[in-house]
Amino acid sequence: MAKKKQTQYSGIGGQAVLEGVMMKNKSKYAVAVRKPDGNIDVQIEEYKGVCGDKAIVKFPLIRGVFAFIDSLILGMRVTMHSASFYEDEEEVETEKKGVESKWNDFMMGLTVVFAVILSVALFMLLPFWLSNLLGKYIRNASLIAILEGIFRIVIFVGYIVSISLMKDIRRLYMYHGAEHKCINCIERGRPLTVKNVMRSSRQHKRCGTSFLLFVVLVSVIVFFFIRVDNMALKLALRLLLVPVIAGISYEIIRLAGRIDNIFIRIISTPGMWMQRLTTKEPDEEMAKVAIASVEAVFDWKTYLIEKFGYENETFEDEDL
């Protein structure tokens, strides 16, 4: 018989990909993809990060920057893997011959760099430019700082809303929901069955959506209190402080994933609201894909025994 406990941190995280889900546990990750023929393909790999196990990646604030970079690199890698199942035969055959291998690696790196530049330009520099335009008519520095923060929040929310309306993105968001449901299922002490996954929440406090929202909100606070008159220096500070803001945001998300109290629930609420846009209710077939990804890298039965007091016999009659 299981003991009743609060949510327990599992350490696993994931990402939705094209017709599938990636789940990561420590350095091991699995990508489960529903292939065009209906079968589920599961690939298990290792990714130790750009700096491996070096001490620098364990320091508070600094580790958040590396975690963000690693998530971009790994995210691009697993997305390309899932997309390979839906390329036409000629492209697949070419890839099998290894002709495009190095080119794909180069393009992946280029895409990651471009994504970072675009994000900084859209969510950091554009609000700065808009508030600077208004600065010609408004002389109150505090009001300008507040307006810059409002622009940043509006642009971010507007971006999330606009892409959530795209038909192809909606299906991706359904797999995103399946990913969250699996993690919530086991972290709340339920056996990982399709039935239990489907009745679990599709919002999770450690979601990347929440992380990005914290980046936006933390930047609003930081830039409100750090002010200089020189425009060039003001712009430079916004660029230089991006890693610091990402580091602070990561620490907040990390804390939220390990502690469950009223304060954490309050500060996590805006991110959970945003996840209503970036996650959708999956169907049972999607849940099965997400479960396959979890089981490839995480022993959830042992986890439930250790954290929630289950016994091995409990799982024998479970309908998986």
How many helices? The count is: 12
Class inferred from helices and paired strands: alpha+beta
The order of strands across the largest sheet is 1-2-3-4
- Beginning-to-end CA distance, first to last residue: 19 Å
Q: How does this model look, in words?
A:
The structure is a single chain. Helices cover 62% and strands 8% of the residues. The protein has 320 residues and is an alpha+beta fold. A 4-stranded antiparallel sheet has the order 1-2-3-4. Helix 1 (62-84) crosses helix 3, helix 4 (141-164) packs antiparallel against helix 7 and helix 5 crosses helix 11 (284-297). It is globular. Residues 89-100 have low confidence and may be disordered.
Kindly list the characteristics that best describe this protein:
320 residues; alpha+beta; four-stranded antiparallel β-sheet; 62% helix; globular
Task: Describe the SSE topology.
Blueprint (H helix, E strand, L loop, with lengths): L11 E6 L2 E6 L2 E7 L5 E7 L15 H23 L4 H8 L4 H34 L6 H24 L2 H21 L6 H5 L9 H18 L5 H10 L1 H17 L3 H17 L5 H14 L2 H9 L12
Antiparallel strand pairs: 1-2, 2-3, 3-4
